[in-house]
């Protein structure tokens, strides 16, 4: 089994431009099970999903009737040649079930880059986009979803929170974290693992990635649950930043319940973030627009929050 940090894996993926880590069905089931009612009567589009490889396609094809989906579309991306799309809409084979056996395959003129005009036409007709987009194109991918005002559930890495454009969307409550294994690890199927066909068992071509996070703009219950706080403020434990008037907290669970001014918390706080309980004030920088400093050290990315209920 390959064990490397996300950053190394990400660098590798970007460098090789392979973007070919495939999500396991079990991880998809764990997350998407929380959104069942949102798929009813909807056109679901998996726009970075080779239907022969993607478990997103498998998940929706298997659960098409159970979720009352209106239409499922998935696309096969080719780097340099025309591609095809697969759709499930009706009981084509008249066996009284709608599933993979009712798949319609249509050739396309373009290569099915998610930014291609053909792909954008389908995007416009879709209600919800669900996928694990290419590692190297995340910002562009998210920008396009907002440009066309789409609902989405996508999996990526918690590092995305630290991107200026993504944090802005989180702060404006336009995107939030799903249930997922935020800050945790997941295994992806690495299609470009050298010689994986001869690997001695399947684990050799699974790759471990830490900080895997689901991002969505679909309303979920979790986002409205208060974080239970139990600690109280004291000056010794909760020190202020040298360049910003806020106290530093290293673990989300240690946020003092009685502190009504600004508090710096780690990015994993977003996993527990309820916009009715806290405001997100700013990200990472002090008054001098330099990274937050405490006792001459910069703690790893901090988000400044404020308790709205005090
Ligand atoms: C990280 S993989 C994930 C695959 C699949 N969504 C899954 O989770 O199993 C990203 C996929 O996006 C495809 N891809 C890369 N660049 C793309 C682009 N510009 N447009 C559409 N798909 C692209 C890759 O071929 C790859 O299949």
Total individual domains: 2
Structural class: alpha/beta
Q: What series of H and E elements makes up the topology?
A: EHEHEHEEEHEHEHEEEEEEE
Head-to-tail CA distance between termini: 49 Å
Question: What is the CATH first-level class name of the largest domain?
Answer: Alpha Beta
The counted number of beta strands is: 15
The percent range for helix content is: 10-25%
Instruction: List segments where confidence is low: pLDDT < 50 over at least 5 consecutive residues.
Output: 1-18, 194-200
Count every helix, treating DSSP H or I runs of 4 or more residues as helices: 6
Describe the secondary-structure layout.
Elements: E1 2-3, H1 6-16, E2 21-23, H2 25-32, E3 43-46, H3 55-62, E4 71-76, E5 84-88, E6 104-107, H4 117-125, E7 128-131, H5 138-147, E8 151-157, H6 164-171, E9 176-177, E10 184-190, E11 206-216, E12 247-248, E13 263-266, E14 278-283, E15 302-307
Bound molecules: S-adenosylmethionine.
Keywords:
310 residues, Rossmann fold, 2 domains, 11-stranded mixed beta sheet, 4-stranded mixed beta sheet, 15 strands, 17% helix, disordered N terminus, binds S-adenosylmethionine
Would you give an account of this structure?
The protein is of the alpha/beta class. It has two domains: 2-221, Rossmann fold (3-Layer(aba) Sandwich); 225-310, no CATH class. It has helices at residues 6-16, 25-32, 55-62, 117-125, 138-147, 164-171, and strands spanning 2-3, 21-23, 43-46, 71-76, 84-88, 104-107, 128-131, 151-157, 176-177, 184-190, 206-216, 247-248, 263-266, 278-283, 302-307. Strands 1, 2, 3, 4, 5, 6, 7, 8, 9, 10 and 11 form an eleven-stranded mixed beta sheet that branches. A four-stranded mixed beta sheet has the order 12-13-15-14, with no helix packed on it. Strand 7 (128-131), helix 5 (138-147) and strand 8 form a beta-alpha-beta unit. The structure holds S-adenosylmethionine (SAM). The site of S-adenosylmethionine (SAM) has 19 residues, from strand 2 and helix 3.
């Amino acid at each position: 089994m390959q064990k490397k940090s996300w950053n190394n894996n990400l660098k590798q993926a970007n460098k090789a431009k392979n973007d070919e880590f495939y999500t396991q069905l079990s991880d998809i089931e764990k997350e998407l099970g929380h959104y069942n009612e949102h798929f009813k009567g909807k056109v679901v589009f998996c726009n970075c999903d080779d239907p022969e490889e993607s478990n997103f396609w498998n998940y929706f094809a298997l659960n098409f009737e159970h979720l009352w989906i209106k239409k499922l579309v998935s696309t096969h991306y080719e780097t340099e040649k025309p591609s095809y799309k697969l759709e499930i809409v009706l009981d084509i084979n008249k066996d009284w079930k709608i599933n993979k056996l009712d798949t319609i395959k249509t050739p396309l003129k373009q290569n099915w880059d998610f930014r291609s005009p053909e792909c954008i036409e389908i995007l416009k007709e879709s209600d919800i986009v669900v996928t694990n987009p290419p590692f190297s194109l995340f910002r562009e991918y998210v920008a396009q979803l907002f440009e066309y005002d789409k609902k989405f559930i996508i999996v990526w890495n918690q590092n995305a929170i630290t991107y200026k454009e993504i944090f802005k969307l989180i702060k404006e409550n336009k995107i939030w974290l799903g249930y997922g294994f935020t800050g945790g690890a997941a295994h992806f199927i690495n299609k470009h693992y050298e010689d994986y066909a001869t690997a001695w068992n399947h684990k050799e071509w699974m790759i471990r990635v830490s900080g895997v996070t689901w991002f969505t703009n679909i309303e979920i219950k979790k986002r409205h649950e208060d974080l239970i706080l139990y600690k109280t403020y004291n000056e010794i434990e909760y020190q202020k930043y040298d360049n910003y008037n806020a106290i530093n907290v290293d673990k989300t669970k240690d946020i003092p319940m009685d502190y009504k001014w600004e508090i710096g918390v780690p990015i994993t706080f977003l996993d527990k973030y309820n916009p009715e309980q806290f405001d997100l004030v700013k990200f990472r920088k002090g008054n001098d627009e330099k990274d937050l400093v405490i006792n001459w050290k910069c703690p790893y990315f901090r988000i400044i929050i404020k308790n709205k209920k005090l």
